[in-house]
Amino acid sequence: MKSLFVLKTVLTVLLALPAIAMQENTKGLLPEVRLDSNNEDKNQETAFQSEVLITKTENKAIEALTKIIAKKKGSDDEADLLFRLAELYMRRAKSGRFFDLNHTTDKQLLTAGLQNQKAQDALKNAITIYNRLEKNFPKYKSLDAVYFNNAIAHLQTKQTDRAKNLYDQLIASFPKSPLVPDTLLEVGEIYYFQQNFQTALDKFKAIEKYPQSKAYPYGLYKSAWAHYNLKQAESGVNQLLLVVKQNPAGDTDAKKYNLRKEALRDLTLFVGETLEPEQLFGFFQKITTEEELGEAIMALSSLYESHSRYKEINIFVNEFIEKHPSSLQAVKCYAKLVDVNETLKLRAAVLINLKKMAEFCHTQPQPTCHDQFRTAALDISKKWWEIWLKNKKNPEFSKLTEQAFEILLANEDISKPDSKSRYAFAELQFQQGHFSTASLNYEQVAHHAAIDKTMAHDALYGALYSVEKQLEVKDDVVEVERQKMLASEYVTNYANGEHITQIRYKLGFIAYKQNDYDLALASLLP
Questions:
Q1: How many CB atoms are closer than 10 A to CB 252?
Q2: Who has greater pLDDT, 12 or 422?
């Protein structure tokens, strides 16, 4: 009686550990470990200590159960006890994998009070027990679970053929077992990874006889990929559509949500290679939410890019924007159109989509929209600027580059002005002979609060020099006053500046012409 009490106590506390084939995964014996995302070393130590505690508890359970089995040998309970012991070894293998993956040394384990915690050793012990159950207890009530768990253990020890035989034996011997759908899924996976796609498909399709099983939607999904690898894309599409239908949008079950997401992602590959680009938007609109539709359109874009089908991307991306102009996915679509049209060297289309992207982001409160616009506009401006630097005599490209800067700077965050881009814009305008606007942009940069003194100095001098060049083209009283104002600012702020002598002389000359003799004298005298 005492041994039976010990057994019940051990099993009550410890065999809440997940049975491999009999119950859902649980969090185990310990409370959920709280990890600190900002301290990886501490996280590792916390996880290690948690696993050590679990392992010690498992080892005690294994030791206690082994002693009880020795005493209960030949009893009606022996098979059940052996099955539970094998389950404990399977759970020990999980802890062993933790130590293996984290390269835990023998010294660390000894310090923690543990020895020889290799996953493979635990699996071999489990296999020995399962083989014993199969041989010595052919009428055991849970023999189907023995086959199933034994197959898993053999797979994890890379004994694939034996695992397949065990799965096949389960299906043949226990056709009504609730484990059959899972078994078909597992053995189908083996054949799939061995690239025996037809046999894998046969196994996956057989799961369709069990529509209420948890394996059913996964069987549909896996059979789609088997069809795809057999060059049967249309059949694969039909299977994925069934997965999407079986797992509706908004389902609170995370597994169903993830499976739907995977199926939609894979559909972009399947239909992207079979349907015309004009058909893609309509196909996905029928089976997705607006957010999912946007994600599908972006996935299709990536697929078409990988095949260098840039021009056709415009077809379905533009259709999405036209039909869903307020979608949060629209900004990504505009960015994609900017990118692909730049690849096609359709610069006019690039500018059109940059403008539309800016207009769209003006209606959106999310800062991420503006960040994405700025990234796209800045990338284009920089690229075109570098191309222009290599060929400044190309008037067409100069104009394109100027337009790109105009779009970028017209939509900048005034609280965080882009000094470098505006300075480059002013340089471009100066080189094109647009001296008046160049001067205004140089001046803006000079007055930006956060820039370093060297750039502020150079920008102010650029503003002043641009006015001088403009006055060479056309005399203008207003521009003369700006020249005087900028020169005075330079003298005040940069008394030791590189151009101080030249600018003091210029300021004195302007004052003299305006009959301001006091200022002229102050500027011209050393």
A1: 6
A2: 422
